[in-house]
Design goal:
InterPro entries: Choice_anch_I, Mesenchyme-surface_protein, Phytase-like_dom, Quino_amine_DH_bsu, WD40/YVTN_repeat-like_dom_sf. This protein is mainly beta. The protein is built from six helices and 54 strands. It folds into two domains: 434 residues, 7 Propeller (Methylamine Dehydrogenase, Chain H), CATH 2.130.10; 285 residues, Tachylectin-2, Chain A, CATH 2.115.10. A hairpin with a 5-residue loop joins strand 24 and strand 25. The radius of gyration is 28 Å and the shape is elongated.
């Protein structure tokens, strides 16, 4: 679970899956996926928690939402903010508009270095678990009982060690706290390696008995030791094959409805069951190992799903009961393991009854949210797991820490979970909070990086939609695996096709691929990938930011606009229909000399009796040109001549922001449509627009740069905000399809400083959006 002893260390994520083929089929046809009664969750709001910061705190200060809970009326959400050493309060009475209600600093309750690790509500009180440890070898902590109505602490209970997670039973008569006494990943125990166990003192579990829930003064704490009095291993732990039984390190706790307490020992790859009434350990079993194939295991910039892991410890983090017999674990892994999935165990036998295998890894690839930078580590990293009953329908909610999604499962049959839908989140979903009484799911995402524009948030999802609205685009399977994709920063219609478009990958990957998109289905489908190669067949790596599909009458193939790391590296590249590079056109040196890294961003073409004419946009102004004037270039393929026009960019006063061009497409009447956008995202996003420009009838004199008149065609910002998510920065794809629809896409940067969500949609008919000259 979330804690910060030497910085943020995430912990519990939840996940559930069905058979891989069934889940992928369900995503491919979301309207008929898993839910037996046809109801789906839809996102209603996303709230950036820096907006709930205390007075005097800077906007750029790290402010996170990790573990969350909700008041008994389901209208006030309370979350931990370890970075700010506080807890926050949100008004969620209106799911469409989350409002900040301020924060409570732990400095007011104890010390400025105190860190909240978890929270839960019991009756009129919120219990805040606080880590007060001076060091790893001197662990300490407490639980503060705060009256919600006036945010006053009414009692503080010493825990005797460093706490992690907390959970209350359904009746509100017992609370369990995992006292992890976590290991120092940089310490080396005698005879071991850096980060190894054992690192004492051993962790344990505290159970608070609340015989009178309304009177915290009567609450009593009971320590449940997980080792013998002399520190030696319990026989049941040793017999179960627990990795280092003298140092159990409990991680996550969860109550069943009939009073069993499940505890995960993440680093020890084990699960402990405790009878909550008697405070006695009733069962211990190993989480075992798993072998998973058909996954990407190399961080090489290529989505290669032919890798495998063999006999890897599951090392479960979050745990949740599916019913009174079966429990599920999110197998995030830690120092030795992590199997990229989740598992259902029979609590009576300790045996595995279902395991997701590679299902969620495939799902991440299919929806374009595969994190290639994590492929060589623990992949999607399922960290938290939550289950709940919504009006008789049981669900499991599974969150991917690295691929930024929550997968929803129907667990009516505990031994056979069925995939229902996938929900996009912001970065690092940590807290998964079902609120069945109000038909809501709340997800708090902890990653907060103001410099990158990735901020921690709380998102709400409401049950009741007749179909799933996400994803808007996905890939189909080829040879048993979904086509790998991401970074849809360019679009072009395919000539003579009503419902096919193409896009191209950029520098987010180490090889370049041209993607064919079928827009006739919902969601749209990526049906083909064409690798770009040189004449010897070797894959090439291009930072392709624009694409134009050439008509068959001109030989077919594609033009790509390639952005360079320097001005001189910008070029237009012609690729034949087999994907082989056939021609390269460099950016003229007199233009390139004034550019840094922001060069070519789009390419389109027109045809007349004089042949093929390319139009390419340069993202930002050259240092040799007037301020805020970007270039649009026309290249005559036959003569090799460039002609340049100026485009006046909007201005911004926001620190760190800039305005630039991101795409160009030729309209049927000779005008050009361009995307002009800012660098801002989330609630700060302002300029995401499509303008049209009309070229003069007479070419400008050589050496001049006439500024074209521009006309606003459509403000795309409302379309990007319509999904109630984190507004994407990189509106970069634009084209008019053969069906007359105007299509847009966002570049998800291959999840590098991005949520990974791709917006792909039609924003209307071209004749209505662009009108006439």
């Amino acid at each position: 679970m979330g804690k910060r002893q030497t910085g943020v260390r995430t912990a519990a994520v939840f996940t559930a899956t069905a058979l891989a083929g069934a889940a992928l089929a369900a995503v491919a046809q979301p309207a008929s996926a898993g839910s037996s009664h046809g109801r789906f969750f839809s996102r209603t709001d996303t709230y950036a928690v820096y907006q709930n910061r205390p007075a005097g705190a800077a906007v750029s200060d790290e402010t996170v939402a990790e573990i969350s809970t909700v008041t008994k009326d389901g209208k006030t959400m309370i979350y931990t903010d370890a970075a700010g050493r506080r807890i926050g309060f949100l008004d969620i009475s209106n799911p469409d508009e989350v409002k900040g209600l301020g924060t409570l600093s732990l400095a007011q309750l104890g010390d400025t270095e105190d860190e909240p690790t978890s929270v839960t509500v019991v009756g009129d009180y919120v219990l805040v678990v606080v880590n007060t440890s001076k060091s790893y070898t001197e662990p300490s902590g407490r639980v503060d009982v705060i009256r919600v109505s006036d945010r006053t602490r009414v009692r503080s209970i010493d825990l005797g060690g460093q706490p992690d997670s907390i959970a209350a039973n359904k009746a509100g008569t017992r609370v369990a706290i995992a006292i992890e006494n976590e290991r120092d990943e940089e310490a080396t125990p005698t005879g071991g390696e850096e980060g190894d166990l054992p690192q004492l003192p051993a962790g344990f579990v505290q159970i608070l008995d609340l015989s009178r829930p309304a009177d915290p003064a009567t609450w009593t704490a009971h320590k449940v030791s997980l080792v013998n009095a002399d520190g030696s291993a319990l026989k049941s732990f040793a017999d179960a094959g627990i990795d280092t039984p003298i140092d159990p390190e409990p991680e996550y706790v969860s109550f069943s409805d009939d009073g069993q307490l499940a505890v995960t020992l993440q680093e020890n790859n084990g699960i402990v069951l405790i009878d909550a009434a008697s405070h006695r350990v009733s069962k211990v079993f190993s989480a075992g190992t798993a072998s998973v194939s058909g996954i990407d295991t190399e961080d090489d910039g290529v989505i290669d799903q032919t890798g495998s892991i063999k006999d890897v410890p599951r090392e479960p983090d979050a745990v949740a009961w599916l019913d009174n017999r079966y429990l599920g674990t999110a197998n995030e892994g830690d120092w030795k393991g992590g199997t990229r999935g989740w598992t259902v165990f029979d609590s009576k036998t300790g045996k595995v009854r279902w395991d997701s295998g590679n299902e969620l890894e495939k799902l991440a690839v299919q929806i374009g949210q595969h994190s290639e930078s994590r492929a060589g580590k623990k992949g999607i990293e399922l960290e938290g797991l939550a289950t709940a009953d919504f009006n008789g329908q049981k669900y499991a909610f599974v969150g991917s820490e690295r691929s930024n999604f929550v997968a929803v499962y129907d667990i009516s049959k505990a031994r056979d979970p069925k995939f229902v839908q996938v929900l996009p989140t912001t970065n690092g979903p940590e807290g998964i909070l079902p609120i069945p009484s109000r038909g809501l799911l709340a997800v708090s995402s902890e990653v907060d990086d103001a410099d990158a524009g990735v901020r921690s948030s709380v998102a709400l999802y409401e049950l009741g939609a007749s179909s799933s609205s996400y994803p808007q685009i996905e890939s189909r399977e080829r040879r048993g695996a979904p086509i790998g994709w991401g970074t849809l920063g360019a679009l072009s219609a395919v000539p003579d096709s009503r419902d096919r478009l193409v896009s191209v990958t950029d520098a987010g990957y180490s090889t370049t691929g041209i993607l064919t998109i079928d827009t006739s289905s919902k969601p749209a489908r990526i049906t083909k990938r064409l690798d770009v190669t040189d004449s010897t067949g070797k894959a090439v790596a291009l930072d392709a930011e624009g694409i134009y599909a050439r008509p068959y009458s001109s030989g077919g193939g594609y033009w790509l606009a390639v952005e360079g790391a320097t001005g001189a590296e910008n070029k237009l590249v012609r690729v034949d229909k087999r994907g082989v590079v056939a021609q390269t056109v460099p950016l003229p040196s007199d233009v390139a000399v004034g550019l840094k890294s922001q060069g070519f961003e789009g390419v389109t073409a027109t045809y007349d009796r004089n042949g093929e004419h390319l139009f390419a946009v340069v993202q930002r102004a050259s240092s040799k040109d007037p301020a805020n004037v970007a270039r649009i270039g026309r290249y005559d393929v036959k003569t090799g001549k460039w002609t340049w026009f100026g485009y006046q960019l909007e201005t911004t006063t926001t620190a760190g922001d800039w305005i630039g061009l991101s795409e160009v497409t030729a309209l049927s009447d000779g005008r050009l449509a361009v995307i002009e956008r800012d660098k801002l995202n989330g609630p700060n996003a302002k300029i995401k627009r499509v303008y049209t420009v009309t070229l003069p009838s007479k070419d400008p004199a050589p050496g001049t740069l006439p500024v074209l008149s521009k006309k606003l065609a459509v403000d795309v910002l409302p379309f990007l905000q319509a999904g109630n998510g984190w507004t994407q920065e990189k509106l970069e794809g634009l084209t008019v399809g053969g069906d007359g629809q105007v299509w847009i896409s966002t570049d998800n940067d291959a999840l590098d400083d991005s949520t990974g969500e791709t917006v792909f949609m039609s924003i209307g008919k071209a004749n209505k959006i662009f009108g006439k000259k």
